[in-house]
From TrEMBL:
FAD binds at residues 37, 49, 89, 292, 333. Belongs to the ferredoxin--NADP reductase type 2 family. Binds 1 FAD per subunit. This is Ferredoxin--NADP reductase. Pfam families: Pyr_redox_2. Its cofactor is FAD. Keywords: FAD, Flavoprotein, NADP, Oxidoreductase. Homodimer.
Length: 347
């Protein structure tokens, strides 16, 4: 796409509660809005707690997270923002006229005059093996359990499973045992935790090594051919090693959220999120924060706080683009933007 792409007044990165409300409020402030979400669906962290009940959103009776997400999405679409799913933001470019271009990991470019980062704790991803050169095998036979693995790829194979010993590892082992010829489970923890994992096996040839961890991967080109595992002794490695010939390696160490390339943009970082001022502005011109991504002295870590952040960030973005603009949107009860919609509701 060339630089003739549409330039939006406001682009929001993140489709959780803060991002969704920012999309609505940006429309209320009569801005053209685009929302970009890394996942394939909207809702953010609330998707992980779909059945939990929320009590602390003002004026909203106790509601399941799944229903609250539906309401937030419906509200966000009020002014018909452009919504882009399945794109993880990677790079930021500045044009000569002061506008910005956000480049996603897939290479698509998005032009905007102002930007709100409502990225929560970051995009979820697998906890990767902390071994030099391990990434070169990811295109071939190093798999992470948080991503979908085609079972037929593992049929009849010798599989090394590096397990966290959690319930998800038990489920993963059961799936592997249905297709693999041999499975060796390597776990840093032993005892009852590993026992529960092995108990999930439906009878395939499964062996356990605990407490062990992968020390080295051996391969030719982009494929792993063997792995060296090493027994743990106290807080570190002991002397006992074993080399195992393998066809596939599956790592199930859980997931963690990270900001990835955003951390290199030059934002001021606090312990685990980014610093903002009272207007939710960052030290980068035209870039604002909302929700869990924002750190400021009066931060309220509730959904209600995220919604307030979103409105403040949109107001900050509006004033950045138009210093003569009002500090906030008019109350919806008297806004002409809702006149026709109110009549349609017949309330």
């Amino acid at each position: 796409m060339t630089d003739r792409m549409k330039t939006y007044d406001l682009t929001i990165v993140g489709g959780g509660p803060a991002g969704l409300y920012a999309a609505f409020y940006g429309g209320l402030r009569e801005m053209s809005v685009k929302l970009i979400e890394a996942r394939g669906e909207l809702g953010g962290r609330l998707l992980s707690y779909a059945e939990k009940i929320v009590w602390d959103v003002g004026g909203v009776p106790p509601i399941r997270c799944s229903a609250l997400v539906e309401n937030l999405i419906r509200q966000a679409r009020t002014f018909e923002p452009t919504i882009v799913l399945g794109q993880r933001v990677a790079q930021l470019e500045r044009r000569g006229d002061g506008t910005m271009v956000i480049v996603s990991a897939c290479g698509q470019r998005h032009a905007t005059r102002a930007l709100i980062l409502a990225v929560g704790h970051g995009a979820p991803g697998p906890v990767r093996l902390d071994l030099e050169g391990a990434e070169r095998y990811e295109a071939a036979n190093l798999h992470y359990a948080s991503a979908a693995i085609e079972p037929e790829r593992l049929r009849g194979k010798r599989v090394l499973l590096s397990s966290s010993g959690t319930t998800s590892s038990s489920v993963r082992l059961e799936e592997l045992a249905a297709v693999a010829s041999r499975i060796i489970v390597v776990s840093r923890s032993g005892g009852e935790q590993l026992g529960r994992t092995l108990a999930a096996s439906p009878g395939a040839l499964v062996e356990a090594r605990a407490p062990y961890a992968i020390e080295r991967l051996h391969g030719a080109g982009e494929r792993i051919e063997a792995a060296t595992i090493r027994r743990l002794d106290g807080g570190g490695f002991g002397e006992r090693r074993e080399r195992i010939e393998v066809d596939e390696v599956v790592v199930d160490h859980g997931t963690r959220s990270e900001y990835g390339p955003l951390s290199a943009w030059g934002l001021e970082k606090s312990a685990w999120n980014f610093d903002a001022d009272a207007r939710l502005a960052t030290r980068l011109p035209g870039i604002f924060l909302a929700g869990d991504a924002a750190n400021f002295p009066s931060k309220l870590h509730l959904i209600a706080g995220a919604l307030s952040d979103a409105a403040l960030a949109v107001n900050g973005a509006k004033k950045y683009l138009d210093p003569a603009a009002s500090r906030s949107a008019p109350m919806s009860t008297g806004s002409p933007l809702f006149a026709g919609r109110n009549r349609a509701l017949e309330l």
